[in-house]
Design goal:
It comes from Chaetoceros muelleri. Belongs to the universal ribosomal protein uL13 family. Keywords: Chloroplast, Plastid, Ribonucleoprotein, Ribosomal protein. One of its GO terms (molecular function) is mRNA binding. The chain has 145 residues and is α/β, with parallel strands linked by helices. The protein has a single domain, classed as Ribosomal Protein L13p, Chain: A (Alpha-Beta Complex), CATH 3.90.1180.10. The strands form two sheets. It has a four-stranded parallel β-sheet with strand order 5-2-1-6.
Amino acid sequence: MNETFIPASNYIRKKWYVIDCKDERLGRISSSIVGLLSGKIKPYYHPAIDVGDYVILINADALKFDREIERRYVFQPGRPGSSLKTIVNALPKQIIEKAIYGMMPNGLAKKQLSNRLKIYLGSDHPHNAQNPVKIDNLETFPNNL
């Protein structure tokens, strides 16, 4: 008889990771962050249990966007004059949060995204007490666990 391993709440220890966004592309870095936040890179991942980690993004203002385009979003459709809003690339925190939120699978990790993802425009962050692990190369990181 097969027995499925389901991690208990005392088995899970959440880690903290620091990622420097300087000269990184939005789509590349977002797909790597989704794996960390949802816990899919862990060997004991289970979709019904929250096994994701915390991610700290520094230098978010130096993130590279694919191109400088005006993004238009429709708020309150059917209301003339106030429904179409233009969002520029001057708000990197909101753009990063929206990109990562759209890539996350539905579940516990997506609901707690705002608690787990910390975005700072500068290079300083107040989370030194958690002993975060600095990730230098995102392409090779999941293979080094």
